[in-house]
Amino acid sequence: MGNVAERPSMEDLEESEALRRLYEWRELVDEECGDCDFYRFCLGGCPYNAITIRDGEMEIDGVDHQCEAYKMIFAEINRRANREFLESGILGGNKKTKRPGVLDIMMK
Ligand code: SF4
């Protein structure tokens, strides 16, 4: 956004290419992530991961490039959490495992 040695003002930072690109990315997230079941966990991922360098120029050509991986990971966490919850005994299940699971991590 700027060089700290040059002591940029807030106005300088607001006019920076990096901040303009960040706003560009945020608009893409609003368009592409609106219907995603995992938005409240992911928030569109990381803007850095959305950067593509093409012919030496920086482009923002989508949301985080790890999007499909995030969806798979969040879906798996969701599946495991639901299974562990149902097996926890709270709803009448009786399976107790000694190994910590996703729910143990979520409850910490
Ligand atoms: S998983 Fe993909 S679609 Fe969902 S919020 Fe994250 S980046 Fe957007």
Automatic annotation (TrEMBL):
Regions that span the bilayer: none
InterPro entries: 4Fe4S-binding_SPASM_dom (IPR023885), 4Fe4S_Fe-S-bd (IPR017896), Aldolase_TIM (IPR013785), rSAM_sf (IPR058240)
Matches recorded under SUPFAM superfamilies: Radical SAM enzymes
Domain 4Fe-4S ferredoxin-type: 25-56
Protein name: Arylsulfatase regulatory protein
